[in-house]
Every structure is written in structure tokens, then in C-alpha cells.
Amino acid sequence: DTGVSQNPRHKITKRGQNVTFRCDPISEHNRLYWYRQTLGQGPEFLTYFQNEAQLEKSRLLSDRFSAERPKGSFSTLEIQRTEQGDSAMYLCASSGITTDSTEAFFGQGTRLTVV
Amino acid sequence: KNEVEQSPQNLTAQEGEFITINCSYSVGISALHWLQQHPGGGIVSLFMLSSGKKKHGRLIATINIQEKHSSLHITASHPRDSAVYICAVRGVSNFGNEKLTFGTGTRLTIIP
Q1: How many Å separate Cα A56 from the centre of its chain?
Q2: Does B39 contact A at CB distance below 8 Å?
């Protein structure tokens, strides 16, 4: 297992376009998180999945954002009608199946630039 | 006021110096993480603490739950330690959600 994998690493898109990012967590991890990090700031929580169920969403996640984890493995984050304010690093993290295995493992992130 | 505060925001030191980065938090937590982020974005977990002290190589992390304070120390600092160090706290979970709340990070630069 090579850890948490995110694709693409970089995405440049025009305002108004839709974009989709993918996260492949560590295979035995049932918990998956999406975070967003803007320049000079720490990451902020967007949403959480336990297996395929999306159990919590931040108020930062507007109606233009949707996340899925259809089979409890990989996850996708889609942004519709992108705006310049969506430019950020989108980070995915996963953690383990027991309450003792909650150290988070992060992907390399997808850097989105909306022009 | 942010729930997680780090200091300093920026730190420049000479190679070999002893480094301390501080983190204070204002909420109840179940654990605290110290993370390292290099240019390009990837985040690596250095420590997860719920009490006491942990050591890994030249890195030491301590936490005082009563004072809601943690420190990350680097001994014999080296230019390859240059990175952003982020403190993050794990709150009491809803639905098993152990999301992290992050500080804004400390940018460390070690000069040869």
C-alpha cells in the first residue's frame, strides 16, 4: 500500500467549469476526510465518510460541492460552477478501523486554481 | 479567536539550534497531532499525543492537558527540517468523526 493517493495533483480550470477530484485512501481504512487549505492557513474540515456513508458536512461545503464514496473505498469531490474563491489545496485523509487506529494519513493534495 | 493557536508564525534559525514551536488550544480534545508540511502540500504526521511526551529521533513533542498546551522541539536542527509545522487537535467525535481542527502553522527555516 502506497498510502493515501490523490488525483490530479494540480488542476487549473476556468471559472464556471466543473471539476472532480479523486482520493484513494489506505485500503483498510474506513474513515475518510476531505479538508481545504487556502494559502497561509491551516486546513479546514469539509466532510467525513465512514465507509460509504457521508456522516458530517461542514457549512463550508456549499451546494456547489458534492462528495461521494460509493463503495466505501475511493472518494470523489466535485465542485460545480467553480469560482475564484474555490482556489485552494484540497486534502484527503484516512484513518483506521478501530478507535485506537485514529492517526490520520494524508494524501499529497490536489491544488486547484480557478482562473 | 481561533480554537488552535500556534507560535511563532515564522521562525528562522541557524543549523544546530534547538527549536521550540508552541500550540495552545481552547477546546476539549481527545488527541493532538503535530504535522509537517513541505512545499507542494503533502502532510506527514509526526506525532499523535493524548498525554505526556513522545520522542522520535531529534523530535520531541509534549502536551499538558490541564494547561491545554503542547510543544514541539527539534534538537540539532538541520536545513532539511525546514517546513511548515502544524498543530491539529482531535475533538470529541460525532458518529466516529474524529476530524482535526488545525492551527495556521509555523514556517521554520533552518539556515546552513
Answers
A1: 13
A2: no
